[in-house]
Amino acid sequence: MSLSEFVIGLADDYKLHGRYRTAETYLTTLRSMLLFHKNEIELHNCFAPDWLLAYQKHLINSGLSQNTVVFYISHVRAMYNKAVKNGLVESQSGLFDHLHTKTVPTLKRAVSGKVISTISEADFSSNSGLEFARDMFMLSFYLQGIAYIDLAHLLKTDVYNNNTIVYRRRKTTSTVHVAVDSVALKIIRKYESKTANLPYLLPILNSTNAEDTQRLYSSSLRTYNRRLKKIAAQLNIEENLTSYVSRHSWATIAYHEGVPTAVISQAMGHQSEEVTHVYLKSFDQPILLRANQAVINAVLKMSSKQQVQSKKNKPPRSNWQNDASGG
C-alpha cells in the first residue's frame, strides 16, 4: 500500500467522525513526507530507520523550529503505530528512539502593557486588513486572552445580556465565562453588520460546514499572523507579534497586577490548573470581572499617562475606567 492511500484513508475516517483538524494534520504531514521523497512511496519504505533519519534531517535543514520538527515526526510515529495495528507493516523495536519526539518549552510570547497600548491606539483606517487584525488582537486581549480559534468560533448565542460571553474552549473543552468590558463591546458592535446572516459573533468564518470551517480557519489564521507582523513593523515593535501574543500578554499582565494564578487559569480556561480548581472550587463571576478589568485598566493607565503627561499630580481617569467603576 502506498503512503498516500494509507494516510488519505485515515484522514477520511477522521472526517467521518467530525475530527477535521486531526484529519488535516495527517494530510499536512503526508504532503511534507512526499515533498521530501519527491514522489510516491510505499508504506513500508518510509517506516525504515535510514528514511526517517533522512526525513528528520530534511526538516531541520529546512529551518523549522524543533517543535515543528517534533510535530511532523510525532505524526509519522502515529501513522506507523496505526499501520502496525492494522497489520500493514511489521513492528520494529526502537524505530523512533533517535528521532525528535518531545517538544521543548517555547520562549515567552508576552509583550508589555505599553506595547498593547501602542497597538490599541494606532490608526489603521487606511488599511482595513490591518485594522481588522488589530481589532481582533485587542478583542482577544480584552476578552481575558481568548485564543484566536475560540474567538473565530464564538456564536451570537454565546453572548448574554451584552455583558457576558460563555464559551467552551476547543482545545480543552473547559467552559469559560468572560465579562464583556465596554471596549470589547465596542469592537464587537463595529463588525455586527458583517455577520448579519451568520451565526458567528465576528466576521472571521463565513460557513457553518465543519470541513469548510477548518479550511477557512486555517486560512484566516495565516492571514491574521501575517498582518500582525506588518503591524509590528509599522509600529516599530521589536517583539514577534502572533495570534498567541495577546493571550500570553493578558496572563502576564494579570499576574503582575496581582491576580492570583488560579484565577488567571480559570479565566483562560486552562486545564492544567484542575487541581487548583477542585481545591478552591469555583470563583464568583465578580472576581473574574475584576481580574479582567484590572488588566484592561493597567493598559489604560499607560495610555492615559502618554496622552496627558502634564497632569503628573493627579493620575488621569479614562472613560473606560469610569464605565468600569459604574458597572
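Next protein, fold it too.
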Amino acid sequence: MVKPTLVTNTIRSRREEAGMTQAELAGLIGVTRQTLIAIEQGRYSPTLEIAFQIARAFGLPLEDLFQYPEPTQKRED
C-alpha cells in the first residue's frame, strides 16, 4: 500500500482556469497523463524538478501550487 503524500496542490483548478487539458499539461512538463493525474489527486509527490516545471507552466511560484502542512508540536504532559 502506498502512503499518501502530505503535499497538497491546486494544479487541477489552475489547469482548468487556464483551459488546459491533463494531456496538454503533461506534455508540456514531460510526464505521462497518468503521472499528472496522480499528482493532481495527491497520490504522488512530484520531484522538485517537475514541481518547478508545473509552476513555470502557470507562471506561478511553487507555494501558489503546492502546500505542505506546518508541523504540529507534540504536547509533553
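About the second fold: The two ends are 34 Å apart (CA to CA).
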